[in-house]
Automatic annotation (TrEMBL):
<keyword id="KW-0443">Lipid metabolism</keyword>
<dbReference type="GO" id="GO:0005739">
    <property type="term" value="C:mitochondrion"/>
</dbReference>
<keyword id="KW-0444">Lipid biosynthesis</keyword>
<keyword id="KW-0594">Phospholipid biosynthesis</keyword>
<keyword id="KW-0812">Transmembrane</keyword>
<keyword id="KW-0472">Membrane</keyword>
<keyword id="KW-0496">Mitochondrion</keyword>
<dbReference type="GO" id="GO:0008654">
    <property type="term" value="P:phospholipid biosynthetic process"/>
</dbReference>
<dbReference type="InterPro" id="IPR011989">
    <property type="entry name" value="ARM-like"/>
</dbReference>
<dbReference type="GO" id="GO:0016020">
    <property type="term" value="C:membrane"/>
</dbReference>
<dbReference type="GO" id="GO:0005783">
    <property type="term" value="C:endoplasmic reticulum"/>
</dbReference>
<dbReference type="InterPro" id="IPR016024">
    <property type="entry name" value="ARM-type_fold"/>
</dbReference>
<comment type="similarity">
    <text>Belongs to the SERAC1 family.</text>
</comment>
<dbReference type="InterPro" id="IPR052374">
    <property type="entry name" value="SERAC1"/>
</dbReference>
<keyword id="KW-0256">Endoplasmic reticulum</keyword>
<keyword id="KW-1208">Phospholipid metabolism</keyword>
<keyword id="KW-1133">Transmembrane helix</keyword>
């Protein structure tokens, strides 16, 4: 404490030091309560306290202002000032309201001491997701050799689907799901996949403003703030989506499941001038599709040499650095070569291009896509999906903004005319049960031909700028097959 007395002893504080410390702490808290009760326009020159103490409480008071710009500035100044002492961070953490805590969590490089640790959870003899269903899961586990972590992962995948339904969200929260998910999060600190699925659920729950208070009260803001600073791109991006959905102070958009913000992931002062959307293809994903070639971890010398030039997701690392005024979004959806790979057989009917197009258009509209210039970057089947979405948008008056603001499209190895790989799968359909996605990619498919012709007509009319890239080197498909998945003639429109 800045009371003019500093004690440095080897064995700890003496009785006199402790007495002075308690006196200073009482004085500080009394002053704090007075400052918080005074109006913002009052001067604090009459307060007998260190200027740093006054500055902290003035900022905390301003975070509760009725003026939005004052609140935002106060949050930024709180995060930018690195002169606070431990006790000041702890005191601030005690009085931060939910809105301010979320704002700090979405501030770049914020000090994590601003956040209270999650409240303690009751001790249980057993941990894990079986808390949701009494003792049924341990009994089920006794009948199988499947590791508990695998079982928990399956349960979490089911909860991800449930958390997309508002009525189910209310049920999850009402039955202590936020606390139980936190328990699993703490138990499985060594499993990045489980932690990401848990935060994915929190991000889905956060779409419902009615549960924001419950999310904050259960200690999730501090965990999300910590996760935002993770070196893992996927980890930080999942946390960024959840916090953006919680931040109703500066974010009007809502990011549904599968829509990830690669940039900007924190609050910033730069205006966003355009949106760039990345759409992956079959067997791709929102992050792994846009990484560099996997590094050989056995080659320590080369890895050390190239680590500064390596990125797990180049749109986030490089595009955002070159063009900071862009909002960079990555879209994820399940895609499989075979129906055997589908997570749920009931989902098979929802995998056609037509269904996915309508589903993603709704998500993108909620995310505010179409309100400013848009550039699409699509790989493989993702390019077909982009063409279908734009055609569907042309038939929907509510999506006129998306069509009008589309300025350019980049196609990476998109099978505009189909691919022989799809034919290969169809020829052995009784073995592979090719999924709807694969059946739609058959070479010279009438549906693909119509899609391409209709899109070309629209692109000419709307004067879209289109750039296509084709494969020139074969790709390894498993240990035995090496082929051009999308040859040049198919990648050309």
């Amino acid at each position: 404490l800045k009371c003019g007395i500093y004690f440095h002893t080897v064995s700890g504080l003496t009785y006199k030091a402790r007495k002075e410390l308690h006196k200073a702490a009482r004085r500080f808290m009394e002053m704090s309560s007075r400052l918080l009760l005074e109006s913002l326009d009052e001067h604090f020159s009459h307060v007998d306290a260190d200027p740093h103490e006054v500055a902290l409480w003035v900022l905390l008071k301003r975070t509760q202002s009725t003026d939005k710009s004052t609140r935002l500035q106060a949050v930024q100044e709180l995060a930018d000032n690195h002169h606070w002492h431990d006790y000041q961070y702890q005191t601030a953490a005690q009085v931060l309201d939910q809105r301010t805590a979320v704002g700090l969590a979405r501030t770049s490089h914020v000090d994590l001491r601003f956040f209270l640790p999650p409240p303690p959870l009751p001790d249980l003899e057993d941990g894990g997701l079986w808390c949701f269903g009494g003792n049924g899961l341990p009994y089920a586990q006794s009948l199988t050799s499947v590791p508990s972590e695998k079982v928990e992962s399956f349960c979490l995948q089911a909860l991800v689907q449930h958390s997309k339904v508002q009525s189910h969200c209310d049920h999850i929260v009402a039955n202590g799901g936020l606390q139980l998910l936190q328990r699993v999060y703490q138990i499985r600190r060594d499993s990045l996949k489980i932690q990401r699925n848990i935060v994915r659920i929190i991000g889905n729950l956060a779409l419902n403003e009615s549960v924001h208070h419950a999310i904050a009260q259960s200690g999730w803001v501090s965990l999300l703030a910590e996760m935002m600073q993770s070196p893992h791109v996927m980890h930080a991006s999942h946390a960024a989506r959840a916090l953006a959905n919680l931040d109703r102070e500066t974010v009007e958009e809502k990011y549904q499941d599968g829509i990830y913000i690669l940039h900007p992931q924190t609050r910033g002062n730069q205006p966003i001038k355009a949106d760039v959307l990345f759409i992956h293809g079959i067997l791709g994903a929102a992050f792994k599709t846009w990484r560099q070639k996997d590094r050989n971890i056995l080659d320590d010398g080369k890895e050390e040499e190239s680590k500064d030039n390596y990125t797990e997701c180049w749109p986030k690392s490089w595009l955002a650095a070159d063009c900071p005024n862009l909002r960079v979004l990555s879209v994820e959806y399940d895609s499989h070569l075979s129906d055997w790979m589908a997570k749920c057989p009931a989902e098979n009917q929802r995998k056609s291009l037509a269904y996915r197009s309508q589903e993603l258009l709704k998500k993108l509209k909620l995310a505010g896509v179409g309100e400013r210039p848009v550039i699409w970057v699509a790989h493989s089947m993702g390019g077909l999906l982009v063409k279908k979405m734009l055609l569907d948008a042309s038939d929907n008056p509510e999506m006129n903004g998306l069509l009008k603001n589309t300025k350019g499209i980049m196609f990476y190895s998109v099978p505009h005319r189909g691919t022989s790989m799809a034919e290969y799968s169809v020829n052995v359909r009784y073995l592979l049960f090719p999924s709807i996605e694969v059946r739609e990619l058959c070479k010279d498919s009438p549906a693909l031909r119509n899609l391409n012709e209709n899109f070309l007509n629209m692109a000419k009319e709307k004067e879209f700028k289109v750039l296509s890239f084709a494969e020139t080197l074969p790709t390894n498909i498993g240990p035995m097959i090496k082929t051009l998945v999308v040859p040049t003639h198919s990648a050309s429109m």
